[in-house]
Amino acid sequence: CQQPICMASRASLMSGLRPDTLDIYNCKSLQEDAPNILTLNQHFEQNGYQIWASGKIYHHQTDHELQFGNTYHSPETQAVGRGYLDAESAKTVEEYDRWYRQNKQQPGGGRGPAFEWPDVADNAYSDGKMTDMAISQLEYYRNSEEPFFMAVGYHKPHLPFNAPLKYWNLYDRHEISPAIYAGHPNNVSTFFNYNFGELRNYYGIPKGSENLDDSLARTLKHGYYASVSYIDAQIGRLLQGLENAGLSPNTIVILWGDHGWKLGEHGMWCKHTQFHLDNHVPLIVKTPKQIAGTTDALVEFVDIYPSLCELAGLEKPIHLQGTSFTPLFENPNKPWKKAAFSYWPASNRTNPDKVVMGYTIQTNRYRYTEWIRKSSGAVLARDLFDHQIDPDETRGIANDDENEDLIQELSVMLDDGWRKIAKDIR
User: Fold this and answer.
1) What is the DSSP letter of 403?
2) What is the pLDDT of residues 79-93, one digit of tens each?
């Protein structure tokens, strides 16, 4: 699945609008950008579904409150800051916030170390507690005659990489290898220069442009793996709860992640670029009586809203900008989209006069980006990767003379837009 990053991807998925529509790519809430749009959860609720939600569904708490009201539930734990249970971590959060204040900078926002591994039960952290709550709600639905729409928004493996010790113990740090390609790609535009400030804001992470040493990089990857395994266990518990409640045979389940992640690739960490790694995300769907399978077809998060409508037999709202991917369930090899679109503002996302947008199309072979000044429409740079010969995106080929015709072809496809791509599906 190809999709824009983080807050934009959540707003896009839940609204059915692409991030460049109504400027959903910015940091504002969906309520601010698209206040009158019928969202996915609202559509199901208006069609008689009971709604229950917890965790990170939208990016902003104001959206959670407006979208779900008293059907939104926050798990309560003993964690402090951004989810710390270890006493030393909690102390660091306090000291770090104080340091920010003394240096007249923005507070640390509850940040402490980038990882911790206390020996605690799964439900000591919010993701485990949320799973307990969701399972209890499924037991309530067991005896209900009304359909339900449940949204469970797990936080991990987002930073900080905090997970119970038993999940860290699943991995031997000495067997964790560094990134396969840790160098910056050759022959790419300056818009791929990124200093992963999201990670650098945590305690103990080198500031400025200093590289992470091997030991720290290995520990961070260890924490990421542990966090993934922790959430994998919670998903397993939730699916078992669905089974135990007798609801599995008639329930659609969809698992998605809101962005990709770099673990040292390109010499970077986190997301916030137009590299393939930042935009390629999990998308797994389970439907009643569906035969297990996979597809290489290109799909996007805006396709989820219309797909769920079709699977549930609901009318699709006219504003939706995605395409239902349900035909792929019957024929995974069916000819599908020639390209998927993703968007990323490289700079000044809140100043309309200075926003530079990275408009990207991903085909079965190529990843092509045009960096465009929003106010003028001027193309400032182009980037192109050939995934057939360079899947790790080590070298840009946009400036190679032999690719002039290819650039023109991809540029036309990008300019034609998603409507033309959707129309071409047969």
Assistant:
1) G
2) 999 999 999 999 999
